[in-house]
Amino acid sequence: MKAVVSVVLALCLLALPEMAPAQALTTEQDHQNMMDQLGIQTLRPGPNGDEKAPDHANYDEAKANPYPDWPDILTLSNGQKITTVNDWWQKRRPEIAEAFEREVVGRVPADVPAVTWRVAESEAETLQGTDIVASRLVGHVDNSAYPAISVDIDAVLILPAKTKAPAPVLVMFNWGPAQFPAPKVPPAPPKDLDPRMAGFLAAAQAANLDRIHQLVADGWGVVILNPTSYQADNGAGLTQGIIGLVNKGQPRKPDDWGALRAWAWGAGRIFDYLTTRPEVDKAHIGIEGVSRYGKAALVTMAFDQRFYMGLIGSSGEGGAKPHRRNFGEAVESLTGSGEYHWMAGNFLKYGEPLNAGDLPVDAHELIALAAPRLVFISYGVPEQGDAKWLDQQGSYMATVAAGRVWKLLGAKDLGVGNDYKTAVMPPPLTDLLDGQLAWRQHIGGHTDAPNIASFITWADRNMGRQ
User: Whose CA, among 24, 285, 353, 382, lies 20 to 30 Å from 309?
Assistant: First the structure.
């Protein structure tokens, strides 16, 4: 007998074992430790997000491109031009991937322990008229080599109850513990919460529910993945979680992985599990994320070639935004103590003594590592809350530049040429969805929910689904 929707909410909120602390380091201590390893005395401060502050970020296009010449996406570091598919796979792509691992996002260690999955609970439900089966998944990481740290991956798998064929699945990075489906009556916000924030949270909850409903109504499955269940979103967590477990509680080395790469690793473990489910179309599994999780989704696509498609929402600096663009968030924003944990330790060098122009790679090459698979770059508009800080124009330029690799590999890019220096972002609601590389700017805020219908139609067409 079908349970009410709120039952699944309850089982999704069940507490998972907390990670045991190993070596207690604060974020500031860990950040200083990495600076000491690199011999860095001070770091340049990042720009202020407040446009009224004297040190605010630049939003003047005339000053936005201090390093106008980006690394050529089809030229090896020795100057050799890449003109064949084989040279891309055998020479240029490995060179780009190595530079990102060494300098930007870090390396995944070879000895990461295995994950054992179990279905904690499962219920038949109804979501807005669509019959589904929701299962809470727990992925336990083998910690026998270092029992002081325990790591479990928290996820919920939602599959349509009635399908004629195995379902494609979109793995969605979630902000916090999986809380789907939502209760019939949303909980009241805290009394002391700013009314504007209460409205934002209610809208976000409704948007998330709507995204999932659109997917399952079209015959897709969805995984709601909580990335902070296995790697915290702060520097203090780097000696805990999966990074801390592999390092046996010790601080990172400069080329060790950061949180973005760790979150992507967890998505890969979900992929492993999905391949064991006969209800899943194993050839058509995708990854999705917004903001910092948009960055993680793009990193997932770049380094795990099993993922067929990616929906990259409002990813900004460290995602689709070029490091070399002086517009909004900057490299120095990612090297400060608030966000450095996303990146490899080596990335701090580009906040002092080096700069963005010294990076061997940039965002267009991160996007290109996903070629020729399906990549949908999504943004909203500043007027509705998708801040200029994210640099929508720069992200469009990077997507345009990345398209050269799709074309080299016999796939379709945006269809607007590949000259990033002259690329001008089209008006919102312009569909550039004819190729395997896609762009669409909706007229909503910091979310990809308004683009989900376009994403489904685009992905279905590429998968040959009716």
Answer: 382
